[in-house]
Specification:
heterotetramer, A mainly alpha (236), B mainly alpha (614), C mainly alpha (112), D alpha+beta (291), A: 236 residues, mainly alpha, Four Helix Bundle (Hemerythrin (Met), subunit A), two-stranded antiparallel ribbon, C: 112 residues, 2 domains, 5 helices
Chain lengths: 236, 614, 112, 291
């Protein structure tokens, strides 16, 4: 996050700092925890996965000669006698951004070693994620009920269903994994593993609040992907 | 569980807080040997006690590297046997009675996929990467040993699934290693049922496993180097593996997405890649998809994949040439930038595999230009290799022979690459045997030469004994001369116009003119294949009885030879991590007593030598 | 790099205000991008608004929630440069699908 | 023997093989001589580099092989030499790329007077369609294909009625007349390739691809499928017969048009009192109207 202090090494800002960091020994990302660097590189790789999905979607949608369904109608809800376009999606976006905010605060309180706040905020994030997955399940079942299948749909191009289920499914899987880990990390926070430096199950590293930030990066990434899916799938 | 850790005093888990802890006095900087203190705390390692934790589910990167090496070699031997069967059919049609066209295409496919992904990629990155990275950058192990172990076992499962496809109804997929839809999942291609599904599953597992390994390699190189080890002091081996891993992390996603979508097309009848199709008089349930999309995804992965195989080879061969000609690598900086530049450019050239695929024809201009730009850094690397030999003091041992063989085959394959990259020259040659000859020469034989050279070079480190030199020379000459006489004439089949992937030519004029050559090529292929067993025999023989190597037998400079024990133990460095003072290529420095100065030699020890670059 | 930071020195956290601000902004921007659909803007206007809000939201999440704004340039550059490959892929695929749909339309429907 | 000498013999052998090889191009029979010239140019430049690099390597190996008392030169970098080599390589690359791009530009720009030939591929065979008197090919749909309409021509397309249909894997072409090959496939990827014409392109289901050439040598040629298309790939052959104008005109006048075929079918149907109706086709037509 902020510049760390490193003995015998004068950290410079900006591009000259970048050149100096790169040319230095031991680490390239000064003060960045191994796990955090790993998560960043992993997310970079994951970005390419989602990019490939969205590029395929763009190519598929662009090449088909059958009319593409109007997302704002397909995903509209009929509430209180009015048709509201994209209502469910709007709420889902709201929920995901809310959970992203709580996660950001959890990271902050984690670094302040505020165990209670941090734990509760992670739990709130997890519940937000769970709500999101639940709403997605509702959306899927609604569409399936209306006859949308991966191989066909009553509204137009069959690729609509294919891409919808594949991309939201892949994103939903990411959210689900995130939720599982959020619950685990909430437990670990409350149990004080990060204060004592207790070792994890599969690692020789000692527990540290930086793990909250690592999980936070993943969670924000899931949110970030949703921003792109929202723009390209629902608004296009 | 805590008793399984070696809790040395001062050992601490690597964490952000420990970085800012202790402090040091200021007057130290006047010492010319001064290297600033460690940023990272010591790494805790899990030392296995039982046979299972030590040798099977092991977290030591060196053991994992050997595991990768052995499993990749095992699949490679399967690929080799498949290639024999193919050559048998091509050289002597009908000689293998059981061989039908279905079998032939299945063998072609599995041979290609095994060799490119499960053999070369796994061997270079999983095998050499795991073994050499921590040693060469001066780390105790990979940064996430547990993840590293899972990576290998994912690879194991991926191989198991791949091999399982030989035994399912319909056999393995026979769609060519490029797996182009629609034919990959339609009747009419062998193994279009279970075969292709298992192939996709296996690839997805491989990618998942490789991602875990790749994260390890990258973070170890970027964040866990020892004191004094800057990026520009790393051996080129590490640079090659590093860049290749970056490419893999960014290119494999496209393969994953492509495999997943193809599986959905097969299993759920989605139409990602499937347009309206008329098959045996019936319109299938597909419609509206684009087969070319798969090709773009595949080659967005596929071209970087070529460099995933080539770049580690470039790196390793640079080190071998430098050590065995007792001379620094010529133009180290240029070599590094060439590796990085080739890696970066490889994401902008993928469609040169698709010049005649029916994509937007105007892409030809873009991709021909970017492709030929890559020729410049690649040529620079070749120049630098031979300029390293120039005025060196060349030990003509087996390792050097493999390197020389690499240079010949690589330059040959690189030049034919310029034919195929130049769009209009590609038109008559693509999909002919010219292509087969080209890529076997440049990404089959050339990297294989490097692998063999690396095996002879690092075997004394891994096993503590030399491989037999005489057997090695037989192995080299049979392989090099044999492989060259397989693939050099094969280019000319392409000139005649013989297309790839033909089970048989019938009485076509192209066949009659090439019958003799095909017989010759097949015979050579059998000999070259058989020659590889010399290496296996050599390894088995010398593992117990070979000449003991001792410390640093090649008088090399890089860190992997400077471990306190040979072979290195878990944790690599004993009590203290090494401190690096120079680049790994200080050979034959004027004024120094010996013709090499190791990376850990402090400047005060070699005051008289005129070192130009550190 | 930023003033708040230099004052805090030891602590690696930031004032809560900045997170709340960004959080609020994200809600507002999401609301705006939803409004793009609500009012059914079409054509270039719709596209530029969608992309504008999308990149703004993505940028805010990355810069502040994922702390990239405070990270050192080495990390930031390593993460952002590979996106040029994606950009190239997108750009080429746009002209590819235009070509595909052109041949389909020309040879299967219009002709002549 | 000294390894350097063996390497030298390998290089020498490669050059000699290239000079004396009996295996080389089939005689060119189209206008794409430019491709052959570019290949020759690439051979000279590339082959020259190959020989030069390898001979230099052999020289180093012979001259600088290990001697105990010799010390290798210590020279980490030579900026000037590297610069010269970089620019020389760049120059060579440009010299190869430029003609390549010029010819590719010709390859993708079809001359106006080219005759369009619709090549339809399936697993595993070919058939061809030529424009009739109106000079235009009718549009097609895969879903229209049936026994009465082997090419899947859209029935409501007026240009399609007089299309000449050649339900054979051999096509005749007129000598010295540019041909635009329009490739389509009804199932998987194929590639219509005649080595003597030097040109090729994949047939991709779902789209129509093209390339062109001008045959300039009378004779019969074998067509090969050059894109793997399943188990019958190796047996998927066709033929081309390049003829003089007179022979070609005579041949084409003997071919059947689509309307001939329909008339024949209708006669047959009347006899059998059967109505042929393609529901599939009608249904799909409506969808495409909406586009």
């Amino acid at each position: 996050m902020s510049d760390p202090k490193i003995e015998g090494f004068d950290l410079k800002p900006g591009f000259s700092g970048m050149a100096k960091d790169t040319a230095s020994d031991q680490t390239m990302f000064k003060g960045v925890h191994w796990g955090k660097a790993m998560m960043w590189i992993f997310l970079l790789s994951d970005t390419f996965i989602f990019s490939c999905f969205l590029i395929s979607y763009m190519k598929g949608r662009g090449s088909t000669m059958v009319e593409w369904p109007n997302a704002s109608e397909v995903f509209g809800l009929h509430v209180f006698g009015v048709d509201v376009p994209l209502l469910l999606i709007a709420i889902m976006t709201f929920v995901l951004i809310t959970s992203s905010g709580t996660m950001a605060l959890a990271v902050k309180y984690g670094y302040e070693r505020n165990k209670k706040m941090c734990g509760w905020l992670i739990l709130a994030t997890a519940i937000g994620g769970l709500t999101f997955v639940g709403m997605q399940a509702f959306e899927w079942s609604k569409l399936i009920h209306e006859g949308v299948r991966p191989w066909e749909n009553p509204f137009g191009a069959p690729q609509f269903g294919s891409f919808f289920f594949m991309i939201t499914g892949f994103h939903g899987t990411h959210v689900t994994f995130g939720v599982i880990f959020l619950f685990i990390y909430a437990y670990k926070t409350f149990a004080g593993h990060y204060d004592e430096g207790k070792r994890g199950w599969f690692t020789t590293m000692k527990g540290d609040y930086v793990e909250i930030e690592i999980l936070g990066l993943y969670w924000h990434f899931v949110d970030l992907v949703w921003v792109f899916i929202f723009a390209f799938f629902y608004l296009w | 569980m805590s008793d399984e850790y070696e809790n040395k005093t001062g050992y601490q888990a690597q964490s952000s807080e420990s970085i800012t802890s202790s402090s040091i006095g200021s007057g130290v900087a006047t010492d010319i040997d001064y290297v600033r203190p460690a940023e990272n705390a010591e790494q805790d390692l899990y030392h296995g006690h039982s046979f299972i934790t030590k040798w099977i589910f092991c977290q030591d990167a060196k053991v994992i590297g050997v595991q990768y090496f052995l499993l990749a070699t095992f699949t490679g031997v399967i690929g080799l046997v498949l290639s024999w069967l193919m050559r048998l059919q091509l050289g002597f049609p009908g000689a293998a009675g059981f061989m039908t066209a279905e079998h032939y295409y299945q063998f072609v496919t599995m041979h290609g996929m095994i060799m490119v992904v499960y053999f070369l990629t796994a061997l270079f990155l999983g095998g050499f990467g795991n073994y050499l990275i921590p040693l060469m950058v001066g780390a105790r192990d990979m940064v996430f040993p547990y993840l590293n172990m899972v990576s290998f076992w994912s690879f194991f499962v991926a191989v198991a699934v791949l091999l399982a496809s030989f035994f399912v109804p319909g056999g393995p997929t026979g769609s060519g290693w490029t797996l182009y839809p629609p034919q990959a999942i339609l009747e009419g291609t062998p193994g279009s049922g279970m075969g292709i599904i298992l192939m996709c599953v296996s690839l997805i597992l491989f990618v998942a496993g490789f991602t875990m390994g790749g994260l390890n390699y990258l973070i170890t190189i970027l964040q866990a180097r020892t004191r004094g080890m800057t990026l520009m002091r790393m051996p080129l081996t590490v640079w090659g593996i590093f860049t290749a891993t970056v490419l893999a992390m960014l290119a494999f996603p496209a393969l994953l997405v492509g495999s997943l979508m193809m599986m959905l097309d097969k299993l759920l009848a989605t139409s990602f890649f499937m347009p309206t199709i008329l098959k045996a008089g019936e319109i299938l349930e597909y419609g509206g998809g684009s087969p070319i999309l798969f090709q773009h995804l595949f080659w967005f992965f596929g071209h970087p994949e070529v460099y995933i195989v080539a770049l580690p080879a470039f790196g390793i061969v640079s080190d071998l040439i430098s050590v065995h000609s007792r001379k620094n690598i010529f133009g180290y900086r240029m070599m590094v930038w060439a590796i990085v530049g080739i890696g970066a450019l490889s994401f902008f050239v993928w469609a040169h595999h698709m010049y005649v695929s029916g994509m937007n024809p105007w892409f030809g201009f873009f991709f021909a230009t970017t492709t030929l730009i890559i020729a410049v850094p690649t040529a620079m690397k070749v120049y630098n290799w031979i300029l390293t030999l120039w005025r060196g003091n060349i030990r003509l041992n087996v390792v050097m022979l493999w390197c020389l063989g690499f240079i010949v085959t690589f330059v040959n394959g690189g030049i034919t690459g310029i034919f195929l990259g130049n769009v209009s020259v590609d038109v008559p040659l693509s999909d002919t045997y010219f292509v087969v000859a080209h890529f076997h020469m440049v990404m089959g034989i050339a990297p294989l030469m490097v692998i063999m050279g690396a095996v002879y070079h690092w075997f004394p480190l891994v096993a503590g004994r030399f491989l037999n030199e005489t057997l090695g020379k037989w192995h080299f000459w049979l392989t090099f001369l044999g492989a060259y006489s397989i693939y050099f004439p094969m280019h000319y089949l392409g000139f005649i116009g013989v297309p790839r992937r033909y089970f048989e030519m019938y009485d076509s004029p192209y066949m009659t003119s090439a019958v003799g050559m095909n017989e010759f090529i097949s015979t050579a292929a059998f000999i070259v294949g058989a020659a590889q067993f010399i290496l296996i025999f050599n390894i088995i023989k010398t593992l117990k009885t070979g000449k003991p190597a001792g410390h640093n037998p090649w008088q090399a400079n890089s860190l992997e030879w400077l471990t306190p024990s040979v072979p290195p133990e878990h944790g690599n460095w004993g009590e203290k991590l090494p401190v690096v003072h120079r680049w790994p290529y200080d050979f034959s420095v004027p004024g120094s007593r010996e013709d090499f100065i190791t990376q850990t030699t402090p400047p005060s020890d070699v005051k008289d030598s005129k070192v130009e670059k550190t | 790099m930023n003033n708040n930071n230099e004052k805090e020195q030891q602590s690696t956290t930031h004032k809560i205000g900045i997170y709340l601000w960004i959080w609020g902004l994200l809600f507002v921007l999401s609301f705006f991008s939803y409004m793009v659909d609500w009012y059914q803007f079409q054509g270039m206007l719709r596209w530029s608004l969608i992309l504008f809000f999308m990149f703004l939201k993505a940028g805010l999440i990355m810069a502040f929630f994922m702390h990239l704004f405070w990270e050192r340039y080495a990390l930031v550059n390593v993460l952002l440069w590979p996106m040029t490959a994606i950009a190239c892929f997108i750009f080429l695929m746009v002209s590819e699908f235009k070509y595909t749909v052109f041949t389909r339309f020309f040879y299967f429907v219009v002709g002549g | 023997m000294h390894p350097g000498i063996i390497f030298f013999l390998v290089i020498l052998g490669s050059v000699l093989f290239h000079i004396f090889t009996p295996w080389y191009w089939t005689d060119i029979a189209s206008n794409w001589g430019g491709m052959d010239d570019t290949i020759t140019l690439t051979f000279w430049i590339g082959g020259g580099v190959f020989v030069a690099v390898c001979l230099f390597m052999v020289y180093c190996v012979l001259k600088f092989s290990y001697k105990k008392d010799r010390k290798a030169e210590y020279k980490p970098e030579d900026k000037k030499l590297e610069k010269i080599l970089t620019w020389a390589t760049t120059l060579g690359v440009v010299a190869l790329l430029a003609p390549g791009l010029v010819i590719w530009n010709q390859y993708v720009s079809v001359p106006k007077n080219a005759v369009e030939v619709d090549v339809m591929a399936w697993q595993w065979g070919w058939q061809y369609r030529l424009a009739g008197e109106d000079g235009k090919l009718g549009t097609t749909q895969v879903v229209n294909i049936n026994d009465d309409n082997p090419f899947g021509i859209n029935l409501d397309d007026p240009f399609g009625q007089d299309d000449i249909m050649i339900q054979s894997d051999v096509i005749n072409l007129e000598n010295n007349k540019p041909v635009k090959i329009l490739l389509r496939s009804v199932d998987v990827l194929h590639n219509w390739y005649v080595p003597q014409f030097r040109s090729k392109m994949d047939a991709v289901p779902g789209i129509v691809t093209y390339y062109w050439f001008e045959p300039n040598k009378i004779g019969e040629y074998e067509v090969l499928c050059a894109e793997y298309c399943g188990v019958g790939h190796y047996a998927m052959r066709g033929g081309v017969e390049v003829q003089s104008k007179e022979d070609y005109d005579k041949w084409i006048s003997e071919q059947e048009t689509f309307s001939d075929l329909i008339a024949k079918q209708e006669k047959l149907e009347l006899e059998n009192k059967k109505i042929v109706k393609n529901n599939n086709f009608l249904l799909n037509k409506d969808i495409y109207k909406e586009e």
